[in-house]
Write a structure and sequence with these properties.
Strands 1-2 form a two-stranded parallel ribbon. The protein is mostly helical. The longest helix is centred in the middle third of the chain and has 28 residues. It has one domain. It is globular, with a radius of gyration of 17 Å.
Length: 262
């Protein structure tokens, strides 16, 4: 599974998912690095963040060209997520300096498994609701005044979790975003991918500078496949049926989480 020639294929598959749905980066790649390649949890998180940054950059560029990015929402989310992800990485640094690396990795592995379960449940919830954007929180129209405080709060929650686990920039934030603002499906995905560029990029830089847990050589091999994958996926946003894709991805997440809990 760790053969070099397979890494671009893994990157291609994950890149397609990111471009199509805004999800698939952390929720697929981090468990793959841990279970498939045997990387420690913190190293898997840091490497995935570095890989995801370039993938999100390519996806953002494609979505921006298509006019499927809402800059107002991106700014509001980033206001909360960027500081929160730095706090999360700071917490990991303090834990590692305490000399409990094995305990931190074991705890982080369980936290990632929990996040996979949450991501799967949120994804299935969207499928069962038929992709509607109205629920108890009361999503507001794209033309209505921006619910800035709620978007910042979503950013804080997502940013902290991404800094810890690399999971949440697509799976969690996009599910919460649906609850507070009504965007067309293509703009929802494009906006989420663009925000994730700032969030994941900040987290990756912090991991690289302070935890030094990023395998740049491995990330570059994954990017060989992920960059064309995310560009293709972004172009196919409106053409591929979402429901079967989301059900399959949610099933994969639950299976992976069960494996990590054992």
């Amino acid at each position: 599974m760790g053969a070099d020639w397979l890494l671009p294929i893994y990157g291609l598959v994950v890149g397609l998912l990111v471009g199509l749905t805004g999800m698939g980066g952390g929720v697929i790649m981090t468990p793959l690095l841990m279970l498939g390649l045997g990387m420690p949890a913190t190293a898997a998180v840091g490497t995935d963040l570095a890989y995801s940054t370039v993938t999100k950059l390519a996806g953002t560029w494609q979505h921006w060209r298509q006019g499927t990015v809402d800059g107002r929402v991106v700014r509001a989310l980033a206001t909360g997520s960027v500081p929160a992800t730095l706090v999360a990485v700071g917490a990991l640094v303090l834990l590692h300096r305490g000399g409990a690396e094995a305990e931190v990795d074991a705890w982080l592995k369980r936290a990632i498994a929990v996040m996979l379960c949450i991501a799967a449940v949120l994804m299935l919830r969207r499928v069962l609701r038929g992709g509607t954007t109205h629920d108890a929180l009361g999503a507001v129209s794209e033309m209505a005044p921006l619910p800035t405080k709620r978007l910042i709060a979503i950013g804080v929650l997502g940013g902290f979790l991404v800094g810890l686990t690399s999971i949440g920039s697509g799976s969690l934030i996009i599910a919460l975003l649906v609850m507070v603002i009504s965007l067309r499906p293509d703009r929802l995905v494009g906006t989420d991918v663009a925000h994730a560029l700032f969030l994941v990029g900040t987290a990756a830089l912090a991991h690289l500078l302070f935890l030094r847990d990023v395998d740049l050589a491995l990330a570059s091999k994954l990017l060989v496949g992920s960059i064309p994958g995310v560009l293709i996926g972004s172009r196919l946003t409106l053409r591929v049926p979402r429901r079967p894709l989301q059900i399959g991805l949610a099933t994969l997440l639950l299976t992976t989480a069960f494996t990590m809990f054992r």
